[in-house]
Design a protein that fits this description.
Layout lengths: L3 H7 L28 H7 L3 E7 L46 E5 L11 E2 L2 E2 L5 E3 L9 E3 L8 H18 L6 E4 L22 H23 L8 E4 L8 H8 L16 H4 L3 E4 L19 H9 L15 H4 L12 E4 L5 E5 L2 E4 L24 E4 L15 H16 L26
Parallel strand pairs: 1-2, 1-7
Antiparallel strand pairs: 2-3, 3-4, 5-6, 8-9, 10-11, 11-12, 12-13
Helix pairs in contact: 3-4
Length: about 450
Amino acid sequence: MHTSRYGVLTGRYAWRTSLKSGVLGGCSAPLIEAGRVTVGSLLQRRGYRTAAIGKWHLGMTFATTDGQPLDDRKAQRHSGVPANVDWQAPIRNGPRTAGFDYYFGCAASWDMPPYAWIENDRLVEPKLVPASKEDGFGRVGVKAPGLKPEDALPVLAQKAVEYIEAAGSRPRPEPFFLYFPLTSPHTPIAPRKSFQGRSRAGAYGDFVMETDWVVGRVMDALERTGLAGHTLLIVTSDNGPENIIDRNRTEYGHLSASTFLGRKRDNWEGGHRVPFIARWPGRVPAGVASSELVCLTDLLATCAAITGVELSAADGPDSCNLLPVLLGRKLAAPVRDAVVHHSGLGEFALREGRWKLLLHPGSGGTTYRARPEYAAYYRHPIQLYDLEADPGETRNLAPARPEVVARLTARLRRYVLEGRSRPGVTQANDPPNDWKQLAWMEQ
């Protein structure tokens, strides 16, 4: 779903914000509202040191040279960014005001300018130079001198390792939370030379392999410092593979999204069904798999449960406590009733148990609309799939099961109107109110 990092940190679906589709730019205003509880701020209150290292992509306030506000969506740009950014001034309303004691990373995706590292509230190198498409980042803009696309993973890995080593070297152990959103395997697909050709699945496969190497460095650091035995480590992703998926299948026989339909930005399973791996020695049973339905918004409520915090009615309106699932307990009922999917175009879908309802034709993205072999998916305004019998989403059951369509539509309508999916007091979604992707609510 778009801007999934918002949901990870706030426990609130990102479509409830003012950003109803698409993503932010490199100089966009902050999306996390002042005062909203995040995983970072919740754990800060419980005595944790907190750090965010990696791709922020939730907006921050860059100072301007003329005192006028930035408009990152204006067509008139200077080298791919607004012309009046003051790169040498402190940056406000970023990770440090969203619950993190320390930050190192980039403003947005690694294919969005500015291509430069930020540490806490300043650019590490404020004297930026023009970046062209030949530099390999993907968009024209500005960048730190000498910076290359393939620099991201080794730099971020080293910063994470240094943070863990510092935590392990303190004379008195203190709990810490490290939020580590990588720039990979998002574009630009830029594996380092030492990884090129190693996967036998093209550049994308090499890049995924390098991403695995980064995870390995983090795990090694936890082991080396003696922290692994009492640290909950979660490895997951916010969406499925990039658009190179078809080339990988044709050229290398590699199924980047397994046998699932779709890819990143789609509401089909290939767009959102991802691994969720947790390690917590002595707490999370090893070698156990769960079919429980979970969502990345659940991190907030889970951290609250781990640390003994009771969330207020306004906090984490779409967050459910996954701790019983992680601990391998037998459950009398699912920890969450359903998950709302949201595509790159802002279209809605709902997963409940075995059922998946898509309230739009096609994928919810743009890739498949013009391809004749997917034409059947665009002939009906609504799709319904039984994922237990048909995980590949090949048989649309909406015409045959109108009662299921009606029930799931009513649930999703309630989730939208009440401003929450977790039980509690009704909240408001953020404007604008001309929300075209909600046309199905009027039918």
